[in-house]
Amino acid sequence: MTTVTDAGQTAVDADRTAVFDAAVAADERIEPRDWMPDAYRATLVRQIAQHAHSEIIGMQPEANWITRAPSLRRKAILIAKVQDEAGHGLYLYSAAETLGTSREELLDKLHAGRQKYSSIFNYPTLTWADVGAIGWLVDGAAITNQVPICRCSYGPYARAMVRICKEESFHQRQGFELLLTLSRGTEAQHAMAQDAVNRWWWPSLMMFGPPDDESSHSAQSMAWKIKRHSNDELRQRFVDIAVPQAEALGLTLPDPDLKWNEERGQHDFGAIDWTEFWDVLKGNGPCNEQRITQRRTAHEDGAWVRDAAAAHAAKHTERTTARSAQNEQEATA
Amino acid sequence: MTATVSGTTGAALVLGDDALVLSHRLAEWAGHAPVLEEEVALANIALDLLGQARVLLSMAGDEDELAYLREERAFRNLQLVEQPNGDFAHTIVRQLLFSTYQRFLYEALAGDRVFGPLAAKAVKEVAYHQDHAEQWTLRLGDGTDESQARMQRGLDALWRYTGEMFRPVDGLESVKWQELEARWSSSVTSVIERATLRVPEGPRTGAWAAGAGREGLHTEPFGRMLAEMQHLHRSHPGASW
Amino acid sequence: MSGDWPLWEVFVRSRRGLSHTHAGSLHAPDAELALRNARDLYTRRSEGVSIWVVPSTAITASSPDEKDPFFEPSADKPYRHPTFYEIPDGVKHL
């Protein structure tokens, strides 16, 4: 339960806070026009925006391989997947708009580097196997993170996530299948798959965010039921799921400390290099500059298209109005 | 596959290569579209075309062998569809010119013994592509001065590739090519005029500009496109993906 | 700027016989493109057979503050529901 009480808060606000808190406690959904604490709204906007940005920046590393996809079947799958990511970005920007923040505003912040997206997309896709590793590991981690958000206290965000999770179920499977084909293929293909898993494993574990004792927003978000599980809990869940899957793939995970802990009933795993995490987050990853530049360029290059369509719509409305005014005049003449 | 293929196989390659190559070009937009809604729209069109290409190439042989192991001179697509995307106006003009053609062509093939079943399904997809191109042509043509200038530039640049579309194709005997051209011409002209644009005056046929894609003569950008598309597949001979 | 493209609410009829339900929203410069964008975005997995788009600004919504006067008065009228009435066992088709 949260207790956001300012000294200057009026009695009405205190009542409203109580109503809000009770709704959250009772696992009811908060809807757009309900009163909500400013900090709750701000936290949601920040999280939904970051999530939306991740979807659309996340298109880039995979789109990088569409034109080189090695079979027509894989090419169709990859186009559909990258398209889904654009769609998911749209669902999420819509959810953010219900909180009174326009997509344009959020995109401006992204382009100016004032809002973040998931750091995982600042790593490059060097080979075709990376497309598989992203599907299996990155989407796998994302799904682990996202499934609990389907029960998030904010209605529009929860509904967007239900839709996204439903659509994403094919993303992880196609990645797994792609890697399995490579792993069972030629020696060169197997090596390609192993190399990709080696490079994507650790960054995928970092996707769950900093350890619980260093996570600045976690406690409040859990209290508000925006978040349902801690970073470390979700990370552990992901590792436990991934280990047997790696075995099925015939690939190894690049962690010598990874082993089953009978006592805990979970896997132990090695220490994560948080220096790298913070470094990439700060903008020093291999692709930060490239990703944001491409995004900004696409947006700027598209400005004339958006302007033209808006201008056309304005002219059209004017003409329709003029025509009906004329019709009216003729009718009364 | 060589220049001597004819009949059904040749015609399947003609239709399949058009769809394959244009799908590839449209997919190059991924991550670069002017607005997110259009990312989704362009990908939908690319997927429809890729689906058609796979059915058609499979009628002529193994879809992947045909897509990835043929040399440039063995491709039968129109030069129009291999043209680089350019700006969004250029892409929309290419869409308008091609989807109008493809729609009427598939309509003409609806009763064809060999291609009828595919054409009947694909014509619905293509009707949507044509509508998408028309909607955008009207908005960009009659939008701002800049968008109008860009659209006109696109039209003027791509017009020379349109004559080739109406050269009779072996194996597509049920198509009346002159009638097809007349329908195309009247439809495209009407959209161009409603969009306050000008029908280009330049030739649609003649020497190289006539377009010889159907005979395996392509433009320079096509070789690069194929190099990118085929590189990975060719680097691992015999591998499965 | 897409900021100039208004927001539209999208309603999709998932199959014949069902009513349109709210699917989400999107941006478009005008109604025709809104409809097409909605088709591409909200029915790409065959989720619909009919679509409505409405400018978001055209929707008038009840206010959550008026929730009580709006919706509570209907809560104490159980006689509107069939379960309110007791019918002897064995009486059929009622």
From TrEMBL, chain A:
InterPro entries according to UniProt: Aromatic_CoA_ox/epox (IPR052703), Ferritin-like (IPR012347), Ferritin-like_SF (IPR009078), PaaA (IPR011881), PaaA_PaaC (IPR007814)
MF term (GO), any: phenylacetyl-CoA 1,2-epoxidase activity
Biased composition (Polar residues): 324-333
Gene3D superfamilies listed in its UniProt record: 1.20.1260.10
Record bears the keyword Oxidoreductase: yes
NCBIfam families reported for this sequence: PA_CoA_Oxy1 (TIGR02156)
Name of the protein described by the UniProt record: 1,2-phenylacetyl-CoA epoxidase subunit A
Native organism: Streptomyces mesophilus
Lineage: Bacteria, Bacillati, Actinomycetota, Actinomycetes, Kitasatosporales
TrEMBL record, chain B:
Alphabetical GO biological process terms: phenylacetate catabolic process
CC terms in the record's Gene Ontology section: cytosol
InterPro entries: Aromatic_CoA_ox/epox, Ferritin-like, Ferritin-like_SF, PaaA_PaaC, PaaC
Highest taxon, organism lineage: Bacteria
Protein name: Phenylacetate-CoA oxygenase subunit PaaC
Organism (species): Streptomyces mesophilus
TrEMBL record, chain C:
Record carries keyword Lipid biosynthesis: no
Record's keyword terms, sorted: Oxidoreductase
One term of GO molecular function: phenylacetyl-CoA 1,2-epoxidase activity
Pfam family, one: PaaB
Domain of life: Bacteria
Top enzyme class: oxidoreductase
This enzyme's EC code(s): 1.14.13.149
Entries under InterPro entries matching the protein: PaaB, PaaB_sf
NCBIfam families per record: PA_CoA_Oxy2
Protein name according to UniProt: 1,2-phenylacetyl-CoA epoxidase subunit B
Organism: Streptomyces mesophilus
Name of the coding gene: paaB
